[in-house]
Each structure stands twice: as C-alpha cells, then as structure tokens.
Automatic annotation (TrEMBL):
This is UbiA prenyltransferase. Its main location: membrane. Keywords: Membrane, Transferase, Transmembrane, Transmembrane helix. GO terms for molecular function: transferase activity, transferring alkyl or aryl (other than methyl) groups. Signal peptide: none annotated. It comes from Botryobasidium botryosum (strain FD-172 SS1). One of its GO terms (cellular component) is plasma membrane. InterPro entries: Prenyltransferase, UbiA_prenyltransferase, UbiA_sf.
Length: 342
C-alpha cells in the first residue's frame, strides 16, 4: 500500500517539475524576444543588407559563384550570431526595465513583471546567452568581427539607462541596431582579406585600416539602419507615451509630441530613402527599384499616422518591419540577379 502511495506522489511531482521547466523555458524565450517577428528582423536585417551590398561591390573581382556562396554563408553565420547577441541584450534591457514594464499596460505581461521568471533566473539566462554568443562569434566569424561587436556590447549595457536622464534614448537604441553594419562589413572584409595578425592590438589596427578605407561605403549603409531605427522606435514608443510621462521616463516620442512628431519624422524618412538609393547606387544595384516599394509604403503611412492613437502607431511599426523585410530580400535578389545575369 505504501509503495503505491509513493508511486502516486511521484506521478504528481513529475508533471509539476515538467511544467516548471516549460514555464522557465518559455519565459527565457520571451526574454530574448524569440516569440515575435520584430525580434528576428530588427537586428538581423542590417547584416543581411550589408552582406548583399558588400558582395555586390566585389562582383567582377572574384568569380560570381564564389561570391554568392560566400554571401550565403556569411548571411547565415551573422543571423545566428546576431540573434543570440540580441537575445542577451534584450534580456538585459528587460532586467533593467522590470519595474517600468510592470507599470505599463503594453509590457506588464513580459516575463519579469508577470512573475514567470525570477530576477536571478533572468540574470542566469542573460549570462548564458552572452556565453553562447561569444562562442558563436568565435566559431562562425573572423575575430575582428568580435572585436567590433564588443563596442555593441558596451552600447547594450548603457542603453537601458538612457531613458532615465535623456529624451534621446531612441538615438542610443538606433546606434545599437545600426552597429550591426560595421560588424557585418568587417566580417565580410576579413573573410576575403584576412589580416593574419597575431595580437589583438594588430587586429584592431587592421579594423582601423578597414574603416579608413571603406567608410564612404559603410557610413551610408550605417545611416540606412540608424535613420530607420530612429523613426521606427520613436513611433513605436508613442504606444506608451502616457504611461512613460507618469513614470518620469524620457523618450523622443515625448520630446517631439503628437503634433510635431510627424513633421519631424517626414524629412528623416525622406533622408532614409535617399540613403537607400545612394548606397545601392554605389554598388551598382537597381537602386530605383529598391526604393519604389518602401518609398510608397512609408510616405503613405507617415501621412496617415496619428501619433496620439496607439493603434495607428502600432500599425506604422508593423509596416516598418515589413519594409525592412522587403528591403533585405530585394537587396539579396538584386545581388543574385547581377551575379548570375548581369
């Protein structure tokens, strides 16, 4: 009889343990934003575009098939590394913002304020994700890319605190997202032109030489991502403006205001479209074609935007993600077309 009772207790204990593990795994998954399309697109698309533009610029200097294979391998490697990197950074952001998130209607269901994971558990996950990211960068990309990405880690560390003392927190977030561009560019360059340097100092010197040589191409690509992220994050933040003001949190959404916001963002969007045209023109892709779709969608959406309406802001943010996907895919298709048929 006692044996059957013991077995019954164990049968009840196992599902509870399994449920706890499942709940924790789900919480970690959401901490890294692996459950949203935005989480997969925001940080990876800059790498996808950069790889396509770099290899398009090299067409004619190496066999086309070799360039296509290299671009595919680097795109996959960068997506894997950057998703892991982003997962760690967003977990850190949620750790710092846990009290704020609990007071904002849109974010109170996130794992930490909802109690789905403890603070110590979130910190353990963040540390684990950082370790995985470091290993992935080491195994999949040249070391110089890891060195450049170290600056991104510093920005990630500081970024969550910006909203407490400056209205320009979105500029910091935009810098963080755009920093993927130099990481991807250095990874591409060092794949074709390995430095052969033995020391970290020499590798840094090689990165500096790449920056001095290629900045006229890299800077416009960087600005594509910076400008896009800035207007996208500003509009996205308007969903929480009223809650942020009550909590004393700063943002460009508050600084610009509902009335002036669209007027300020319109020239930024036109500048963004201009940089897209210029960057693709430099590498010989079909720049006019690349700008037609995002131009039409962005311009129509900015004129329809009502920053005082959270639903309108959410719609604009969703359209922005779709545009990033379209732009990344179009860059790649245009590169493949030029490599195979031009």
């Amino acid at each position: 009889m006692s044996t059957s009772i013991s077995a019954l207790r164990k049968s009840h204990a196992s599902p509870s343990f399994a449920a706890l593990v499942g709940k924790t795994a789900n919480a970690c998954f959401r901490l890294g934003r692996f459950h949203t399309l935005m989480g997969y697109v925001i940080f990876t698309t800059p790498a996808v575009i950069t790889v396509a533009l770099y290899h398009a610029a090299r067409l004619g200097s190496a066999p086309s098939l070799e360039l296509v294979q290299s671009a595919a391998r680097l795109t996959l490697a960068l997506i894997i590394c950057i998703l892991s990197y982003r997962g760690a950074g967003l977990a850190w952001d949620d750790i710092i913002d846990r009290d704020i998130d609990g007071s904002v209607a849109r974010t109170k269901s996130r794992p930490l304020p909802a109690g789905d994971i403890s603070l110590s558990g979130a910190l353990l996950y963040c540390g684990f994700q950082i370790s995985i990211t470091s290993l992935l960068f080491q195994k999949l990309l040249p070391m110089e890319a890891s060195l450049v990405n170290a600056i991104g880690w510093i920005i990630f560390l500081v970024y969550p605190f910006l909203k407490f003392f400056t209205y320009w927190a979105q500029a910091g977030g935009s810098l963080l997202m755009a920093w993927v561009v130099p990481v991807a560019w250095v990874a591409c360059v060092c794949t074709f032109e390995p430095s052969g340097a033995a020391t970290v100092a020499d590798k840094w010197a090689y990165v500096a030489s790449i920056a001095a040589r290629d900045w006229q191409i890299v800077l416009p690509i960087f600005m594509i991502e910076f400008l896009f992220s800035f207007f996208h994050e500003t509009v996205y933040g308007c969903q929480d403006t009223s809650d942020d003001m009550k909590l004393g949190v700063f943002s460009t959404s508050i600084l610009f205001g509902y009335q002036r916001g669209p007027q300020i963002l319109k020239p930024i969007i036109f500048a963004y479209l201009g940089v897209v045209f210029y960057s693709t023109y430099l590498v010989g892709l079909h720049a006019v074609l690349l700008t037609l779709i995002p131009s039409y969608v962005l311009i129509s959406e900015i004129y329809a935007l009502r920053m005082a309406d959270p639903r309108s802001c959410a719609r604009f943010a969703k359209r922005g993600i779709e545009i990033k996907i379209i732009l990344g895919l179009t860059c790649w298709v245009s590169f493949l077309w030029k490599a195979c048929f031009a």
